[in-house]
Amino acid sequence: MHSFTPEDLIQYVYNETSTQKSAAIRGALETDWKLREKYEEILSAQQALEKVTFSPRKKAIDNILAYAEKLVAHGTEV
Known about the structure:
Layout: H1 6-13, H2 19-31, H3 33-51, H4 58-73
Helix pairs in contact: 1-3, 2-3
């Protein structure tokens, strides 16, 4: 019996495991309830991450634009 790490499960969730390793993990998930519990936690975290959106603060955008305008005004290439 192979002992899978959380990293193995994360790779499995993101389809980054080989066909052979994926089959082994699927088999282990059917019989190892502790592994199955960890897998469910990782799936839940993945789903939560997919809902997160990121955007920069307005001040950060304003600073970048001001810097770019300053460079253009002084004839410096960006």
